[in-house]
Automatic annotation (TrEMBL):
Keywords on record: ATP-binding, Nucleotide-binding, Transport
InterPro entries: AAA+_ATPase, ABC_transporter-like_ATP-bd, ABC_Transporter_VariousFunc, P-loop_NTPase
One example GO MF annotation: ATP hydrolysis activity
UniProt xrefs under CDD domains: ABC_DR_subfamily_A
Lineage: Bacteria, Bacillati, Bacillota, Erysipelotrichia, Erysipelotrichales
SUPFAM superfamilies assigned: P-loop containing nucleoside triphosphate hydrolases (SSF52540)
Domain ABC transporter residue range list: 2-227
Presence of the UniProt keyword Metal-binding in the record: no
Keyword rRNA-binding attributed: no
Official protein name in the record: ABC transporter ATP-binding protein
Source organism per UniProt: Holdemania filiformis
Length: 300
C-alpha cells in the first residue's frame, strides 16, 4: 500500500505540498486530478523517492521511499517531461532499463513494440511526441515493476493511442495486481480508467473516493411542491451542495444515499420530481463548491 501521511514539500519559501494524506491500495488504478501548478508532479516525485519530503512521510508497504534502493527497484516513474539519451535508438534505451531492473522482460518489450508499431532500431530523437510517450510506457511496463507513477500520461497521444494505452495498463493491473498512479489536469482522460480518484487543490487532496461512489452518491434533483413559496430551508435535512429556484421549480445538487433522499423528497408530495445522474466532472465541481471554491477557479 502507498501511504502519504501529513506529507509536505517546500522549495525555499514556497510550499507546494501541504499536510497531504492519502492511501492507495494494492492493485488499484488511482487518478489524481488537479490544475496546472496544484502539486501533482511534486507529489509523484516524493512517492518515487526523487524528492525528500520536507515534513510527514511517503511510504510503500510501511517503508520510506527516499534513499531506499530496495523499494525503488519496484517503482517506475515516468515524468511529464520525458528524457532519453541523445542518439540512442529504442533498443539501446531498453538495454539501459534492463541494466536497472533485474526482471526486465525483453519478450514483453518486443511484444509491446509490435503492438504499438514502434521500430526498436529507430533513433528516439526522430520520434514524435506521441511516439515518445508510447515508448516511455513500453519501457515502464517491460520492467515488471510493481508500482507505476505516470505524470500527464496521455499528453501527446491521439484518441486511438489513448484507448490502446488504457487497455494495456488495465491488462497489467488485472494480470499482475500492479498499482498505477496517474496524474492529469483533465478529468475526462482518467474517468473511464481509474477505480479511485482524488482532487488535488493547492497542494492538498481535498477529497477522494472510488469511482462508483462518486457517481452514485451525488445527483441532480428537480422538484416542484404544492406550496410554491418553498425555499432551500425546506430541504435542510438533506446535504444540498447547490440550490437554485426558477419560478416554481427548484434545481438542487444533493449528496447522499439515493433511496433515502428519494424517500425524503417524496414525503413532501411533490408535483414534479426528477433525480438525474451527474457526469464525473460535475461531481468534482460541485464537491469543490462545497469547500468554497468557485467553478471558474478549478480549470479542470
Amino acid at each position: 500500500m502507498i501511504v502519504a501521511e501529513n506529507l509536505g514539500k517546500k522549495f525555499r519559501n514556497k510550499t507546494v505540498i501541504r499536510q497531504m494524506n492519502c492511501a492507495i491500495k494494492e492493485g488499484s488504478i488511482y487518478g489524481l486530478v488537479g490544475a496546472n501548478g496544484a502539486g501533482k508532479s511534486t507529489f509523484l516525485r516524493m512517492l518515487a523517492g526523487v524528492y525528500q519530503p520536507s515534513e510527514g512521510k511517503a511510504e510503500i508497504n510501511g517503508e520510506a521511499v527516499f534513499d531506499n534502493a530496495k523499494i525503488k527497484k519496484e517503482i517506475v516513474f515516468i515524468p511529464d517531461e520525458l528524457y532519453f539519451f541523445p542518439n540512442y535508438n529504442f533498443r539501446m534505451m531498453a538495454d539501459y532499463y534492463a541494466s536497472l531492473y533485474e526482471h526486465f522482460d525483453r519478450h514483453r518489450f518486443q511484444m509491446l513494440c509490435d503492438h504499438f508499431k514502434l521500430d526498436t532500431e529507430a533513433r528516439i530523437q526522430n520520434f514524435s511526441k506521441g511516439m515518445k510517450r508510447q515508448g516511455a510506457l513500453i519501457l515502464a511496463l517491460s520492467t515488471r515493476a510493481h508500482y507505476f507513477f505516470f505524470d500527464e500520461t496521455f499528453d501527446g497521444l491521439d484518441p486511438v493511442m489513448r484507448s490502446l494505452v488504457k487497455s494495456v495498463l488495465s491488462e497489467d493491473v488485472a494480470q499482475r495486481n500492479s498499482t498505477v498512479l496517474l496524474t492529469s489536469h483533465n478529468l475526462r482522460e482518467l474517468e473511464d480508467l481509474c477505480d479511485h480518484m482524488g482532487l488535488l487543490v493547492e497542494g492538498r487532496i481535498m477529497f477522494e473516493s472510488d469511482i462508483d461512489s462518486l457517481k452514485t452518491e451525488m445527483f441532480k434533483v428537480q422538484i416542484a411542491l404544492p406550496d410554491k413559496t418553498f425555499d432551500r430551508d425546506e430541504f435542510r435535512q438533506l446535504k444540498v451542495l447547490y440550490y437554485k429556484k426558477s419560478g416554481s421549480i427548484a434545481t438542487m445538487i444533493v449528496k447522499g444515499d439515493r433511496e433515502l433522499v428519494t424517500d425524503v423528497l417524496r414525503s413532501k408530495q411533490p408535483i414534479i420530481l426528477d433525480l438525474l445522474p451527474l457526469s464525473l466532472e460535475e461531481v468534482f465541481i460541485y464537491e469543490m463548491e462545497g469547500y468554497g471554491y468557485e467553478f471558474d477557479s478549478l480549470r479542470l
